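Sanity check

After download, print the first record. It should look like this:
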Amino acid sequence: MDAEYIVRTANGPVRGTVSPRSQDGRIVVHRGIPYAAAPFAEHRFAAPAPAPAWDGVRDCTEPGPPAPQGTQLIGAAPWSPDTSLDCLVLNVWSSTEAGTAAPVLVWIHGGAYIVGSGAEATYDGTRLAEAGLVVVSVNYRLGFEGFGHVPGRPDNRGLLDQAAALRWVRDNIAAFGGDPGNVTIAGESAGAGSVVCLMASPDARGLFHRAVAHSVPGDMLTVDTARAVSEGVAKAAGVPLEAESLAALAPEKILAATDEVLSGSGEGSGGVRTKAFTCYAPVVGGPELPEAPLAAIARGAAADVTLLVGHNTEEYRLFTELGQKVEIDGEAALAVTASRLGLGEGAVAAYRAVHPEASLRELFTEIRGDAMFCEYSVRLAEAQAAAGGSAHFFRFAAQSRTMEGRLGACHAFDLPFAFGNLDCDLAVFLCDGEPDEGYRGLSERMVGAWSAFAATGDPGWPAVRPDATVVRVWDIEDSLTEGDASAVRALWADVSLDPR
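Expected C-alpha cells:
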C-alpha cells in the first residue's frame, strides 16, 4: 500500500483513506469496491458475473449504494433513490503496517433478507482491524432481487453474491495484507442465516475456514413456497411470472408489490406469508442449496469449519417493544400462538414455571424468541459437534438500559460490543447514552474473542461436546456454564425446523 493508500486488485487499483475511527492513523478503509458486475440488463435475476476491469485508479473512499430495499420490517427505512442495483460492492479495513498476513473476517449483514448494508456504522471494522484482522463487509442483493423465485434463474442470488464476494477475497485480499488461507465468515440474524447456508452450499466450499453466527434465524423456504410468494408478487405488480417481464420493472415497483403481498392487500396476492417478518429467505431444494443447512451440517457437510454460534437472551423484545402490536387475551390465546409454532399442550405452563412473574406479553416474547432465533442456534451448535466438527456456543445476556430496561438483551444489542463500536447510534440508543466501564469492558472482551477465533479458531472457552453444551454467557460479569441452562428446551425437541 503506497502513500496514497492505493492497492492493486485483479480488476485495477483502488484508492482508500484513513479510517475516521482509527486511533493512530494506521487503519485504512477502501469502500465500495466492486466484486461482481452490476446486475443490470441480462444480469438481472442472474448469478453474479465477474466485475469488469477499469483503467486508472478507482476512488474507493466512499461507500457504494445499498441494495434496493423495502419497508416491511420494524425499524426499516423506506426505499430511497440512494439505493441501486449497482450494489455488489464490499468494504475493506486493513493496516498500513507491513507484517505477516493477517486473518480475514468477512461480515455479512442482517436485515431479514430485505434490508441492510455492509456500510452501516455498527459494522465499521476499524476496531477489529486494530486487533489484528483484515475486515471485509459485503453488500448483496436483497428481497425479490436476491431471493425471489424467477423461472429459469437461480433462486438464491443473494447467497451466490456472497460466494462471489468470498472468491474476490480469495483472489485479492493478499494485496490488503490479508491471508486468503485464513478466512472467517461472520453474520448476525439474516447474515447468520446466510453464514449457515454458505456452510452447507457447494458453491462456497473451500472459500472460508471458520464461521461466526449470531442469532441464527431458522427461516428457510421450500421451492414451492418461494414460487407461491413470487406468483403473488408478480400478480400484485401486474406482470406474468417470467424473467423478461419482471426485469422490465424498476426495483421500487417490485418492492411495492412485495409490500402488498406481505400486508395481504394486493389483488390476487393471497396474503402469502411465511413464519418470518418477510416473505423472502434462502430457498432449499435447488443447486445452490440442495439440502436444509441444519440437516447438511448434522451429516458433516461443514465438519472442517470451526463454528462460533449463539444468541441473545431476550431476542424478541426488540420487536415487541419497538413496534409490533401484541394483544393476548389470556393464556388460552397464548397457547394458540404456541401451538402454531409447533409446541404441544402444556407449553405455556412450562414457560410460566420458568418465568413465574412474567406478563402474558413477556411470555409471548420468550416463546417467539426461542422459535425465531434461540432454538435454531442451539441445534446448530449441537449438530456441528455431533458431526465431529468444532462449535463454541455463547449467550449474550447484557441488559439494555434504555426504555427503563424493557429491551433487555434484545436482538442486535450484541453487535456494537462485538465490533467495538459503542459510539454508533445503535449502541448509544440501547446503552441509553455514553457506555459505562462495564459496557466498555464487555466490548473489549468480545472484540478479543472474535479476533482470537478468527486467528486460531479458539475464542477462549471450551467447545461444545456431544454430551454437553458448554456456554459462554456474555455479560457485565461473564460466566461459563456446562449443560443447557434452559428448562424449556425439552418442549422444542419434537418441533420441526425444516423449511416451510
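If your output differs, re-run the checksum step. Summary of this record's structure: The first helix runs from residue 126 to 130.
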